[in-house]
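Anyone up for a design puzzle?
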């Protein structure tokens, strides 16, 4: 960071302004530590030691060591700006080659504004598409992801955003792969995977309590697996109490949902399977701290952190 203090005088040491500067330093120190590479202060006037005396006690010692202060024109010689910056990015009025079209002491012309928001938005969307998958959940037709666990102790982590509607998220375990099965080990996502003939407690078991996720919420969580086999992440449309849809709807329900223009839920989701050796400490401590559904969700019930098995 290059700071030019040309023109600083006692009039700038206005008490509310100095207090605001100290508050900004406090916020940066508390929330963004060790993000500064080097701070180069040039053309420091005689009044600068007064300002430095006021603010330096509020700056961390490691950060203060990153400050270089130049008075007069000694920033132009050996040990000056060229030791830290390329000449093409040093402003011309400080001896560099970068021509600045902003009038000194004036406003930055709008013609010089750098519009990065659109590019940043495009980059963010691209990253989302590369990382997150989208899914639509219809009434009677849940979206499910089958994750194959080859060792007993692994960690399944998930992160998803509810874009539209309310859904119920559940996690199940089975010793057999749903039909149609996977062609290769790992995971498979493709709408409803669970066989409609399966019986809860016989063919598969629930290992995490269902969680109602509301529109607009972002949910993160993890589960420490106990047994190898197939784990099913399931999102289904939330139904009002007394009219809840079963987890395994019949064929007619699915066909009706697919061919009807009724409401549907949309979500973006990401999941990952991590091996137990990737964690420091015991698996039991990991489970006690982070297992279950996100504590950030306002709808997380007191029972959401409990694990269930058949």
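Challenge accepted. My sequence:
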């Amino acid at each position: 960071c290059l700071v030019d203090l040309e023109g600083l005088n006692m009039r700038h040491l206005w008490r509310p302004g100095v207090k605001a500067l100290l508050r900004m330093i406090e916020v940066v120190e508390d929330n963004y530590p060790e993000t500064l590479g080097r701070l180069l202060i040039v053309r420091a006037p005689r009044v600068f030691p007064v300002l430095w005396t006021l603010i330096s006690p509020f700056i961390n010692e490691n950060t203060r060591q990153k400050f270089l202060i130049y008075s007069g024109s000694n920033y132009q010689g050996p040990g000056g700006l060229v030791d830290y910056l390329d000449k093409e990015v040093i402003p011309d009025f400080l001896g560099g080659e970068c021509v600045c079209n902003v009038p000194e002491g004036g406003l930055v012309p709008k013609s010089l504004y750098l519009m990065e928001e659109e590019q940043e938005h495009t980059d963010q969307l691209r990253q989302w598409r590369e990382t997150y998958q989208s899914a639509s959940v219809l009434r009677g037709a849940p979206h499910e992801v089958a994750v194959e666990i080859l060792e007993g102790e692994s960690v399944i982590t998930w992160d998803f955003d509810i874009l539209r509607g309310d859904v119920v998220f559940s996690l199940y375990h089975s010793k057999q792969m749903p039909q149609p099965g996977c062609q290769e080990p790992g995971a498979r996502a493709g709408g409803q995977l669970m066989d409609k003939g399966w019986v809860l407690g016989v063919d598969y078991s629930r290992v995490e309590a269902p969680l109602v996720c509301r529109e607009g919420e972002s949910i993160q969580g993890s589960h420490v697996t106990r047994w190898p086999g197939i784990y099913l992440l399931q999102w289904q449309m939330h139904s009002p109490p007394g009219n809840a849809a079963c987890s395994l709807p019949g064929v007619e329900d699915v066909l009706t949902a697919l061919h009807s223009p009724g409401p549907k839920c949309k979500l973006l989701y990401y999941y990952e399977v991590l091996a137990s050796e990737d964690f420091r400490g015991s698996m039991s401590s990991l489970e006690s701290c982070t297992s279950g559904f996100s504590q950030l969700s306002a709808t997380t019930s007191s029972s959401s952190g409990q694990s269930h098995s058949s």
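A detail worth pointing out: Residues 15-31 form the longest helix (17 residues).
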